[in-house]
From TrEMBL:
It comes from Rhodococcus rhodnii LMG 5362. It comes from the Bacteria. GO terms for cellular component: ATP-binding cassette (ABC) transporter complex. This is Uncharacterized protein. NCBIfam families: 3A0109s03R.
């Protein structure tokens, strides 16, 4: 967590671009054999799986372990997991051919796809079989802030996640604009770098209010004992947002690409994981975002709602 309000403010938009560029270089440098494979072949021996930063990297890698284990076993490839410092790093690494599989947020996926990155939305996680992938953005406030609505955020220090975060910036910006608040002028914006960091900064008083996705506030942080009951108040919930997709590079050999898409869409559910011996019970099957069922198919049209919010907000990151 951040040691002071000054250190958290250092992660504003200007710094985010630099961090993103550095992370792209890091992705390119890490795992040179994987990078060489990716650059020279559509059928590499090592597949690089990169994720956007929803929380600190060690636990994020553990959350994706079952996903990467299944891909390794089914394809016979080595899967190297990389956690980037920001969303832009994953986009640019996949554009450069350094990453073959990417876990995006809805907005970062749209940003990648609509800017020409050859990536295919394959699957997103759900809690229950037969349901559509989706979640909400929460506006949370410190109980001592005096904020009871988005309109009350005027003049306050407000934590966001990242300029290209769907539930941590884009949908919050739309909500603030609807409440008469210009997120660029009427508040002091702070980019915390992760949903957990945003929520914990609000709880500690480093930000008066902030935004994070629902499961982080309701389940993930409380289950770890990091967010006590009553530490934050939820004052706003967004409309339903399309679920965060895992995507596959279109540059891969078609047979390998289609195999990975099929794995993601059909083989990474709790029943399949138990049957395959990856875990012994539902309690042992840890999946990203604490989802209780697993992954189901999505396609590009699932994210048209995000494109609509971009049109509404005219957010700089949408351009």
């Amino acid at each position: 967590m951040f040691s002071s309000s000054n250190s958290i403010r250092a992660r504003r938009v200007a710094g985010t671009a630099a961090l993103g560029f550095a992370a792209v270089l890091g992705l390119a440098a890490c795992g040179s054999s994987a990078a060489d494979d990716a650059a020279g072949s559509g059928n590499p021996d090592t597949l690089v799986f990169a994720s956007i930063p929803s929380e600190e990297s060690q636990s994020l890698q553990q959350e994706y372990k079952l996903v990467t284990d299944v891909i390794e076993k089914e394809t016979g490839k080595t899967v190297e997991f990389l956690n980037a410092s920001d969303y832009a790093a994953v986009i640019e690494a996949q554009r450069a051919g350094k990453v073959q599989i990417a876990a995006y947020g809805p907005f970062s996926y749209v940003t990648a796809k609509d800017s020409g990155v050859g990536t295919i939305a394959a699957a997103a996680a759900v809690d229950e079989e037969g349901t559509d992938p989706g979640y909400q953005s929460y506006a949370i406030v410190n109980p001592d802030s005096g904020i009871t609505s988005l309109a009350d955020m005027r003049g306050k220090t407000i934590c966001f996640v990242d300029p290209t975060s769907t539930s941590g910036y884009l949908y919050p910006s739309a909500g603030l604009l609807e409440a008469g608040i210009d997120p660029a002028k009427d508040i002091t914006p702070v980019f915390a770098g992760g949903h957990d960091a945003s929520a914990l900064a609000v709880a500690s008083g480093q930000c008066d209010g902030g935004f994070a996705y629902d499961t982080m506030v309701d389940v993930a942080l409380p289950s770890k004992g990091e967010l006590a009951p009553g530490a934050v108040n939820v004052i706003w919930k967004s409309e339903e947002i399309a679920g965060s997709p895992i995507t596959v590079s279109d540059d891969l050999d078609p047979a390998l690409r289609d195999q990975i898409v099929e794995i993601l869409q059909t083989k990474i559910t709790v029943p399949q994981l138990i049957a395959g011996g990856y875990c012994t019970s539902a309690d042992d099957c840890t999946l990203p975002e604490d989802k209780k069922f697993g992954y189901v198919p999505v396609d590009d049209a699932s994210f048209d709602g995000v494109r609509k919010v971009c049109e509404t907000t005219k957010a700089e990151a949408c351009q």
